[in-house]
Design brief:
The protein is of the alpha/beta class. The protein contains 14 helices and twelve strands. The chain binds pyridoxal-5'-phosphate.
Length: 353
C-alpha cells in the first residue's frame, strides 16, 4: 500500500500544498532574502504581522526553529524559562532550549494545557544570589499533548498579568493558533495581544509544504532575524516558501473549521467503541486522544493492527493514541476510520489479533 492509500491521521503536517500554492510558488517574484530583497517574503511577513496585530514578522524554516529563535531573542543564556510541562518545546525539540539556547526550562503542570496564573506566580522565584534570573513564560496554543486544547483570551490575559507583574516576558508557541481562533470564534489578534511575541506554523493545518512565522515588535524581529542567521536559517530566494504562505493566510484559515467538525465526528464515533475511552469535552480543535487501556495491548500493537486496516495514527504516551484531522480527511474517511478502529478494538479485546 502506498502512503497515499492510507487514511493518515498521524498529524496535520502530512498535508500537501494545494494546486494554487504550487502555481504561486512557480510564479513567485524572488530575491535574496538575507539581503531583505525577496518581495514575496516581505509581503508574507507584512501580511502576517498585520493579521496578528503586531509590528513585524520573520519567516523561518520550521516551528522548532521559530521556538528556538524566539527563546534566544527573548532571553540571555543561563536564564530561567517557565513552560507547561507537556509543551512541545519541552518534549519534542531535542532539548535545544538547553543545549543551544543555554536556558533552564522550568516545567509547570496544568490540567488542560493552560497554565494556572497562581502556578506561574509560584514558579517565579525571587531574585536571589542562588537562583537563575527568571526571564520568560511560554504558553502553547493550541496545546498539542493536551489534545489540541485551546487557551482562551482570558486565560492568556491572566497568565500574562502574572508574568508581567514580575517583569517577565510572555511568548506563545502558536503553531496552531489559527485553530484556536477558529474554535473560539475570535479574531486571532485577541489571542496575540496578550503575549509579547508568538509564532505560527504554515506547514500544519494551513497546508504549506514548509515554514513558520515569528511575530512581534519591530525591535524584537530585528534581533530575531540575526538569531535566525546564526542558527543557519538565513534563506536566499525564500519567496518559493512565502508564496504558499500568502495563499495560506488568504484562503486556508476558515476551512480549519471543517477539520474541527471532522475531529468531533471521529471522536463521537470512536467513543462508542468498547475498550476505548474518548473524553469528548476535550475535543476542541483537530485532535482526538484515545485512551486504549481497556484493550489490554500496547500502543504499538494497536497502531500496527490499525495500519493493517488502512488507518495511521500515533502514540503520545502509554495507552494514549492521537488522531489529527486535516485537509484531505473528509467525512467518508472519518467514517472508514471509525469502522477500522471498531474492528481492530473488537479483535484485540477478544484476543484474536
Ligand atoms: C505546538 C507545536 N510547536 C512546535 C512544533 C514544531 O514544528 P516543526 O515540526 O515545524 O518543527 C510543533 C510540531 O508539531 C507543535 O505541535
Amino acid at each position: 500500500m502506498s502512503i497515499k492509500e492510507f487514511i493518515d491521521l498521524r498529524s496535520d503536517t502530512v498535508t500537501l500544498p494545494t494546486e494554487e500554492m504550487l502555481e504561486a510558488i512557480r510564479n513567485a517574484e524572488l530575491g535574496d532574502d538575507v539581503l531583505g530583497e525577496d518581495p514575496t517574503v516581505n509581503r508574507l511577513e507584512q501580511m502576517a504581522a498585520a493579521k496578528l496585530g503586531k509590528e513585524a514578522a520573520l519567516l523561518v524554516t520550521s516551528g522548532t526553529q521559530a521556538n528556538l529563535v524566539s527563546l534566544m531573542s527573548n532571553t540571555n543564556r543561563g536564564e530561567l524559562v517557565i513552560l507547561e510541562s507537556e509543551s512541545h518545546m519541552y518534549w519534542y525539540e531535542v532539548g535545544g532550549i538547553s543545549s543551544i539556547a543555554g536556558l533552564l526550562p522550568w516545567p509547570v503542570r496544568s490540567k488542560r494545557g493552560a497554565l494556572d496564573p497562581l502556578d506561574v506566580e509560584a514558579a517565579i522565584r525571587p531574585r536571589n544570589i542562588h537562583f537563575p534570573e527568571p526571564a520568560l513564560v511560554c504558553v502553547e496554543n493550541t496545546h498539542n499533548r493536551h489534545g489540541g486544547a485551546v487557551v482562551t483570551p482570558d486565560e492568556l490575559r491572566l497568565i500574562s498579568e502574572a508574568a508581567k507583574g514580575h517583569g517577565l516576558r510572555v511568548y506563545m508557541d502558536g503553531a496552531r493558533i489559527f485553530n484556536a481562533a477558529v474554535a473560539l470564534k475570535v479574531d486571532v489578534k485577541e489571542l496575540a495581544k496578550h503575549v509579547d511575541n508568538l509564532m505560527f506554523c504554515l506547514s500544519k493545518g494551513l497546508s504549506c509544504p514548509v515554514g513558520s512565522v515569528v511575530v512581534g515588535t519591530g525591535e524584537f524581529i530585528e534581533k530575531a532575524r540575526k538569531v535566525r542567521k546564526v542558527l543557519g536559517g538565513g534563506m536566499r530566494q525564500a519567496g518559493i516558501i512565502a508564496a504558499s504562505g500568502i495563499i495560506a493566510l488568504e484562503k486556508m484559515i476558515d476551512r480549519l473549521e471543517e477539520d474541527h467538525v471532522n475531529a468531533k465526528r471521529l471522536a463521537e464515533g470512536i467513543a462508542k467503541v468498547d475498550g476505548i475511552v474518548v473524553d469528548l469535552e476535550r475535543v476542541q480543535t483537530n485532535m482526538v486522544v484515545l485512551d486504549i487501556s481497556g484493550l489490554g495491548v500496547s500502543d504499538e500493537r494497536f497502531l500496527s493492527r490499525l495500519g493493517e486496516n488502512g488507518v495511521l495514527a500515533s502514540t503520545i504516551g502509554k495507552n494514549k493514541v492521537r488522531m489529527v484531522t486535516h485537509r484531505g480527511i473528509e467525512k467518508e474517511h472519518v467514517e472508514k476510520a471509525i469502522v477500522a478502529v471498531a474492528i481492530v478494538a473488537d479483535e484485540l479485546r477478544r484476543g484474536f489479533a
